[in-house]
Amino acid sequence: MSILTICRRWFHPVRGKIVLPKSSTTFLSSSGQVLPVSSIELSNGSATNVESVPDWAGADREALVFDTFDNFVPVDVAHLPGIIFNAVIRPDIVHRVVVWQAACRRRGIHNTKTRAEVSGGGRKPRPQKGTGRSRQGSIRSPLWVHGGVAHGPKPKDYSYQEARKLVENGLRSLLTSRLIDGRLWIVRDCALPSSDPDILHTHLKKHCWKSFALVDARNDDFDGVSDNLADAAFFVPEAKVLTLEKMNVHDIIQQDHLVISRQALEQMLDRFKHINCYY
């Protein structure tokens, strides 16, 4: 191997962009860039130390907490852990999770009849010889009109198993992407004063939203979502109400914005507490 070939492989411009350091001296900024931890500044102007950021987490973030849908004004600031909202954005993982969920949701009830299942065709339509025409044994052959289907689709189960960590990383990547794009909102209480769908329609028109997914986790309700909110969202196709247990990538990625209640945000930490890395 020549010296020129070695230099070309060692100083290849793409190699430096693919290999990223995995040490504790880096974190993922809000713009998606990997920056050193020393560049993080606190509110008092002092810089953080390397030991203050764990090896397995990105930098924690903060977001405004709004009151309700009727009174959509900021009232507090929520602490967003970096293990959930500062993960590495992986579109390939999100795509795999969406394909997996779409495959599991397929009913697979398609069914076609073979020549043995189609009615009729008991006798031979014409003699074997003497007519000058082709040899046929049944009018329900796939060659005939209204005959059976050869190798047609039958009821099938399209679901398959996917790695649990991959599904969790896809959800963390989507939550991080929604936060960076400014399409994630934290609401103190998602309960509505009434089940009138006009409340949600007014909210969509006021903030120029095309659609939104709402994640709620109420401890005082059996379904985890207030009855007024569930009844109002039933008549609004642009609103998708989910509980914390049913929060998934497929339903969130179809909506333009994501709204999370304060209770769901607090309970979300228990769902991802076993994760020890942010990439």
Automatic annotation (TrEMBL):
Superkingdom classification of source: Eukaryota
Transmembrane segments: none
Keywords carried by this UniProt record: Ribonucleoprotein, Ribosomal protein
Region (Disordered): 111-156
InterPro entries linked: Ribosomal_uL4 (IPR002136), Ribosomal_uL4-like (IPR013005), Ribosomal_uL4_dom_sf (IPR023574)
SUPFAM superfamilies in the record: Ribosomal protein L4 (SSF52166)
UniProt GO BP: translation
GO cellular component, one term: ribonucleoprotein complex
GO molecular function: structural constituent of ribosome
HAMAP family, sorted: Ribosomal_uL4_B
Family named by the database record: Belongs to the universal ribosomal protein uL4 family.
Function: Probably binds the 23S rRNA.
Protein name: Large ribosomal subunit protein uL4m
Organism: Galdieria sulphuraria
